[in-house]
Specification:
alpha+beta; Glutaredoxin; Glutathione S-transferase Yfyf (Class Pi), Chain A, domain 2; 2 domains; 4-stranded mixed sheet; about 10% strand; globular
Length: about 210
């Protein structure tokens, strides 16, 4: 097996996704913590590795891969089981749409750099920043519930865990940190519970990381 280094921050949603993915594939990895609070992602040393200055990034025998969904795809090519997307084209497209609803439509509006910009550059009070966060999470989760429900089973797509579930779990974790109500999303909660019951997923939880602060 290759040597894998994960550059991550314990509470980053995208990093949490990648820890879940690595654990599900049974891949050992070394963690290199990058503190988003301390701004280490913007250091010259880190940006020389990842010009975006984002986490996560994985190094696979020196090959650098950024962006969580691209990392999922790379891990699928590295280890076949369990697959993160279905093999049938309609199922694959549906799972990708669910995952992208989280990764592209909900999460980017609510990550740390956006919240900091609202507060520092635009001078918004913390109450307004929190309201911004909750608004976009609620809107996104309502859409995700409606998209997933018709084809959901134990997980968001039937009874096979997929990258959609891997994206869901960190999003709900962070939503609860901002007091987003979850009762309106029974499909999402069912899939979350099934995913969290898996030992590799439990081990990826932010509170289980040695770097948790």
């Amino acid at each position: 097996m290759p040597r894998i280094v994960l550059h991550d921050y314990f509470r980053s949603s995208a990093s949490y996704r990648v820890r879940i993915a690595l654990n599900l594939k049974g891949l050992a990895y070394d963690q290199h913590p990058v503190s988003l609070v301390a701004g280490e992602q913007q250091s010259p040393e880190y940006k020389a590795l990842n010009p975006q200055g984002f986490v996560p990034m994985v190094e696979i025998d020196g090959e650098r891969v950024t962006q969580s969904l691209a990392i999922f795809d790379r891990l699928d090519a590295l280890v076949e089981e369990p697959p993160f997307v279905p093999s049938d084209p309609p199922g694959r497209a549906h799972v990708l749409a669910l995952a992208l609803t989280v990764a592209c439509d909900i999460h980017p509006l609510n990550n740390l750099r956006v919240l900091r910009y609202l507060k520092t550059e635009l001078g918004q009070p913390q109450e307004a920043v929190d309201a911004w966060y909750r608004h976009w999470v609620v809107e996104g989760l309502a859409a995700l519930e409606a998209l997933a429900a018709p084809q959901a089973g134990t997980f968001l797509y039937g009874d096979q865990l997929s990258m959609a579930d891997i994206c869901l779990v960190p999003q709900l974790y962070n939503g609860r940190r901002f007091d987003v109500p979850m009762d309106a999303y029974p499909t999402l909660l069912r899939a979350e519970a099934a995913t969290l019951a898996l030992a590799p997923v439990e081990a990826a939880h932010p509170d289980r990381q040695e770097t948790a602060q």
